[in-house]
């Protein structure tokens, strides 16, 4: 829990293309978390262009410092990655590698945080395998993956600029992921 009574959820993901399908999915989940009564923050796309994570380097790029500090403040996290060739994007994986900078914190890594996960890919295979990888990474980082995760096939579902999608079931899934993260964070905070 953050030092104030405010419960905070961070969204991480998307691709290099602003307004990408994965970023739009992330915004839906994060919006649902906000509706549940938490504050939210989004670090997406171009903001995730970071130097490759290197444990040997102590100095961090300003975007990396912002990311690590945002994760440190977060009571919950939502991660949405595009699926590329059956795996999460290098952009999102590198961002998650920076969680290592929290290893010596009072709350190390993602300890005590609910983590909502979704994968967005053009095809079911990449969407499903990417979600599985996100869950494995979350567990390795001591995070609590929400019961529901999202595998979204953009060959069948298209997100729009208005914050919706062509498939209402996909929107409901993303909204439930966001509310699960918020509810877990709020319950841990005693709200």
UniProtKB/TrEMBL annotation:
InterPro entries: Flavoprotein-like_sf (IPR029039), FMN_Rdtase-like_dom (IPR005025), NAD(P)H-dep_reductase (IPR050712)
The organism's taxonomic lineage, starting at the top: Bacteria, Bacillati, Actinomycetota, Actinomycetes, Pseudonocardiales
Record PANTHER family: CHROMATE REDUCTASE, NAD(P)H-DEPENDENT FMN REDUCTASE LOT6
Gene3D superfamilies linked: 3.40.50.360
Span of domain NADPH-dependent FMN reductase-like: 8-147
Organism: Amycolatopsis orientalis (Nocardia orientalis)
One of the record's GO cellular component terms: cytosol
GO molecular function: FMN binding; oxidoreductase activity
Protein name: FMN reductase
